[in-house]
Amino acid sequence: MDKALQTMIDNMPEKTGKSLDQWKTILKAKAFSKHSEGLNFLKKEHGVTHGYANTIILLSKDESPSEDDLVSNQYKGKESLFPIYEMLIDTIKPFGNDITITPKKTSVSVIRKRQFVLIKPATKTRIDLGFKLPDKPTTDRLGNSGPFGTMCTHRVQLTSVDDVDSELIGWMKEAYTLAK
């Protein structure tokens, strides 16, 4: 680590009132999507100088969020959808021991040799479930991929755990089988 940076980190409690780890905890709770939002927050709300605020934010971003953090952040303000997500994951896991569940910032990819399902809380009341089902015709329920583009061939919109029925499970199993 650069000497000047280490000096800033060492002086941070005296100059800002908190250690770097304390600032990281504060920023993590806020989950700013833009660098400038975090910068303004530290400067206006906590009186941190620009140099320290910038350093705090940059060093806070170095740590990748855990998979649990990624998923919980997706469902902030959409908590009513989380039981649907859990049911989907619990339904998919028994398909095979070759499944990888990969949370990202806004969605969760479910992969065998390639992605076969994509779970995305699209609105406060709806999860979009994307599938890779090439050559399968669309229906009223099994729509085109919509906002997923080429990541998926089809999409089903889920608003309740009751939507995870035998028909949906069948499509997920078919997508899993095709992903070998």
Write a structural description.
The structure is a single chain. The chain is of the alpha+beta class and 180 residues long. It folds into two domains: 3-61, no CATH class; 68-178. The chain is built from seven helices and six strands, in the order ααααααββββββα. Strands 1-2-3-4-6-5 form a six-stranded antiparallel beta sheet. Helix 2 (20-30) crosses helix 4. It starts with a helix and ends with a helix. The model has no long low-confidence stretch (mean pLDDT 90).
Spell out the key features of this protein.
45% helix, elongated, 2 domains, 6-stranded antiparallel sheet, 7 helices, alpha+beta
- Summing up helix and strand content along with how strands pair, one would put the structural category as alpha+beta
Number of helices: 7
Average the pLDDT over all residues and give the rounded result: 90
Proportion in helices? 40-55%
